[in-house]
Design a protein that fits this description.
The structure is a homodimer. The first copy, chain A, is α/β, with parallel strands linked by helices. Chain A folds into 2 domains: about 130 residues, Aspartate Aminotransferase, domain 1; about 260 residues, Aspartate Aminotransferase, domain 2 (3-Layer(aba) Sandwich), CATH 3.40.640.10. The first copy, chain A, is built from 13 helices and 15 strands. The radius of gyration of chain A is 22 Å and the shape is globular. The interface between A and B is large, with 110 and 110 residues.
Chain lengths: ~450, ~450
């Protein structure tokens, strides 16, 4: 099946290789063969041995035999798989009605007010969409309209989505997806890339300034800088902070806007704040959010400073049929309920701290672990062949991921070289889950790291 | 609120005018004021007096006071508002698990096989997305990749969606949304536009040939012709058929593909066939679908001829997190269940025939009705100031829509001049619903038409 696949596809982290299909259990083989017959372009499975789940609870997933897998990867079911509150609220709404935003819906207004209350003053308009890609697509439409520019700055291996427009500023999609002519790439905030004598803040600011200069030299006025506060696909670079104020100054001086892509870092993923940008001490012009927003019911959002969005609103028609209709809004509101009732953010902070400390402890002596990075319930472990050269070791990373999966603990990989373990459980992760993860990780690390 | 709005916004059919907000009931005013404070660009309400619903059943919607409105407009709740089968299946799935397509899901494969079985041979690959816009965006990405072209042909007032890319080939969005440089417009298949001595087939074919020639003269190779088989936003032109084979021949001869946008016309809306394109005796290269697919749970799809999509699949990464996950797939499968159990298509055919015949009967003598068009449960009534000049009368159309709404029957308007009544109930529309609609319409027509 795969011999003619491009490097962009083959290099996807922790991708199941269809060439080994015949080694899988018979029923799994059969389902995957059928799948291959009917699904369109681009569908990939994860893990050397893919897995199917029939139920879930908290951070646990259960297969056909009732085996209990610990989910340390999925960020969509943020308050937990099949959370009873979300199930109840959404089921009730399904049984009542689902109207779109061209009808009056007090619940939509209530939700918008509640969600906007988690933002700093100034970010006061909410538009809803269906996916993170649609949110970033709308954000960029508005940014281009408002600024009159076409230039875009993103990090070197960023991922922002898969619409035609957004794929053109998502370099991590690889060579099959060409970048737009007005897109410029900068390093993620990796302190190891800073020249001696400089600082991370200077390095980031200089890169943005150079990118703007190069854009302008090519006739592109800046529309936007877009950053994911976790730099997830770049390899997870949450710290240190402190460089953003200078970066945003450059962006604004060039007439551009700063779009904070919170699809990964939003909804308290990083523990300290509801939104990742808040750690950086800057006010974005536009904020986008997605995956965890409805705990699996498709909903995404864009929050604007009105000065940035109101001219678009006066001139451009935008209606997204499903977005903002009663069912996704019910799901979004239920997630906010659970955040309050279970004090989710505090739990993320506490369990995230233990999780990261445990991972650091386990890997401290390993010659194959260059760094442990991350914050809250998002941790990256950079796997290298050699701590001095930092040469990435994708094979070893995938051995670890696969060994973990065989022990029924689900993580995956990230970064261009696919050598960073991506440890990102549902926010429902408990202290018992942390313990189970660390015990299993210690076993695997003992053999592999 | 509206004095600085563009013509594109103000001209939206049956749009609530915020300037008359103070004439509404107090609670409604309050909700709309709050809504205006928190929602982002582009949100519009329908009807001179907007309305809020708290429950629904079949083609009926109920407001806070329990008033029973007949829904003759919404195509998303296709098998009926809050259909018990869909509620049950989706609620059960919500309580079980929701994994994405990077895990094995037999239910996804089952659904894809079932849905593809409704297509003619050759259309055999399904990709899922979240919205019709995402479906059309992916369709165009694949079309451009496959053909190497950038040229697009659509009808003059077509609507295909709201991503950056799709908005550039959706002329009905109006002047605020510029068309792409490689987009060319042709007339919808309105026989009244055909020159004496010619035929509709010749007229349509000649327009496509001219558009291709003009594109090539400007350096654009053709990527795709995209048509909505109902020509919904153009004003609803379902008949006569017979012109598409020649049109598609031109498209293929120029190296382009034919994308059938079935967001409006799919899922048996037109009664005779599951898919609108099937009435035209042509095989599309790509088919897109959306709104009714999950009865309100966000799900959309793209079906490809493998020859068109497989090269994209080998080279380009595409992953849509929510799309194809367990909840939307459960909703999609439940809709197909209901189609089989209730023989939905037969019901559409029967009730559609009665509906249209009744509307024709009521409007036959009216000096203000130029034509009744449509098929199945999609009927358009063109309202004019004068049957000879065909001068559109938007005001009169909106009077009719508003009078119907005041009698608790919901329809809306379409076409560039907003003068075509858009009569498009859920497919759950019963013969009793047809009777109620026709009685109310006869009352309003007696006064207005």
């Amino acid at each position: 099946m795969s011999s003619t696949l491009s490097r962009a596809i083959k290099s996807f982290p922790n991708r199941f290789d269809p060439d080994v299909l015949s080694t899988l259990p018979a029923h799994l083989q059969e389902t995957i063969r059928r799948r291959h017959q009917v699904l369109g372009p681009g569908y990939m499975l994860m893990y050397r041995e893919p897995v199917e789940f029939v139920s879930g609870q908290g951070a646990h997933l259960f297969d056909h035999e009732g085996n209990d897998y610990l989910d340390v990867y999925n960020n969509v079911p943020c308050v937990g798989h099949a959370h009873p509150r979300v199930v109840e609220v959404v089921s009730r709404q399904l049984a009542a009605v689902n109207t779109n935003t061209r009808y009056v819906q007090e619940a939509l207004v209530d939700y918008a007010e509640r969600l906007l209350a988690t933002f700093p003053a100034g970010l006061s308009r909410l538009s809803l969409a269906c996916s993170g890609s649609e949110a970033n697509d709308l954000a960029m439409r508005v940014a281009k309209y408002h600024t009159g520019g076409e230039g875009i700055i993103v990090t070197r291996w960023a991922y922002h989505g898969i619409t035609s427009e957004v794929s053109r500023f998502s370099p991590s999609l690889g060579k099959g997806s060409p970048l737009g002519p007005g897109v410029r790439l900068i390093d993620p905030p990796d302190p190891r890339l800073v020249a001696p004598g400089s600082t991370l803040a200077e390095h980031m600011r200089a890169q943005v300034r150079d990118a703007i200069e190069d854009l302008e030299r090519h006739g592109f006025r800046l529309a936007a800088l877009v950053t994911d506060s976790t730099y997830s696909s770049d390899g997870i670079f949450t710290d240190p902070v402190g460089y953003m104020p200078g970066v945003v100054e450059e962006v604004h001086a060039a007439g551009g806007v700063y779009i904070a892509d919170e699809v990964q870092s939003g909804f308290a993923r990083l523990g300290e704040e509801m939104w990742g940008f808040a750690r950086h001490g800057v006010l974005p012009d536009i904020v986008t959010m997605g995956k965890p927003m409805g705990n699996g019911v498709p909903i995404s959002g864009v929050v604007f400073r009105p000065e940035v969005s109101d001219d678009f609103g006066r001139n451009v028609r935008y209606f997204n049929t499903f977005a903002g209709s009663s069912i996704p809004v019910a799901a979004g509101a239920a997630v906010l309920d659970v955040f309050e009732e279970e004090n989710v953010q505090q739990r993320v902070l506490e369990n995230g701290t233990t999780l990261r400390a445990g991972i650091e402890e386990i890997t401290r002596e390993s010659p194959y672990v260059a760094e442990v990075r991350g914050r809250g319930l998002y941790v990256g472990v950079e796997i290298v062949a050699d701590r001095d050269t930092l040469a990435p070791d994708r094979g070893l990373a995938e051995d670890v991921i696969s060994d973990m999966r065989d022990r029924r603990v689900l993580i995956s990989g990230t970064a261009k070289a696919a050598n960073v373990l991506k440890i990102r459980p549902p926010l429902a992760f408990t202290s018992a889950d942390v313990t189970r993860f660390l015990e299993t990780f210690a076993e695997v690390a003992k053999e592999r790291l």
